[in-house]
Amino acid sequence: MKIANTLSLSVAMIGMAIAPAFAQSADAATAPNAMPAETKGGTSLTKPQVEQLLATHGYTKVDDLEFDKGLWQAKARSADGKDVDVKVDPATGEIVPDKAVSQVGEDDIRASLATAGYTDTHDVKLDDGVWKAKARNAEGKKVKLQLSPQDGSIIAVEGK
Q1: What is the pLDDT along the chain (160 residues), one digit of tens a residue?
Q2: Residue 83 in contact with residue 131, Cβ under 8 Å?
């Protein structure tokens, strides 16, 4: 009885280990334009997965997404509204824009500041690689803020 339980457990564990590979193969075979990119490590992102990854990172208007020279490549609009060419590593999902771009847009910055209690937010702009804004803090005092281009977090406040 003990051997049968051990055997059943082993078979179940093997099934759990290989099921994702079968699921990925089935997804890749049935999804339109799902051509997987070939990589040395064997793990790859399909075209729909790359499209979702870019959208998650704030890219819109993704055009001409193609697998070329070992990378997914596309033209897109970044979160800060700039047209860029991007390359995506099919094994890691790392996104490499042709220009450094913000991962968040102006609306994200305004929302982040509102959530943090700032009001009367204005002059929001991406400048020298960081977001800058003017607003009033919780005490109503005018402040100048600098925010991360990666996640919109406040990195500096002047005028507290």
Answers
A1: 444 444 343 434 334 443 444 344 334 333 334 444 444 445 689 999 999 999 999 999 999 999 987 889 999 998 888 898 988 888 888 887 877 678 899 999 999 999 999 999 999 998 867 799 999 999 999 999 989 888 888 988 988 6
A2: no
CB neighbour list of residue 16: distance below 8 Å, 6 or more residues apart: none
Q: How far apart are CA 66 and CA 56, in angstroms?
A: 18
Phi, psi of 14 (to 5 degrees): -65, -45
Say if CB 45 and CB 73 are below 8 A apart.
no
Pairing of strands 83-88, 95-97: antiparallel
Position 80: which residue type?
A: D
Q: Which amino acid, 152?
A: G
DSSP-assigned letter for residue 124: E
Residue with tokens 């209690």: 117
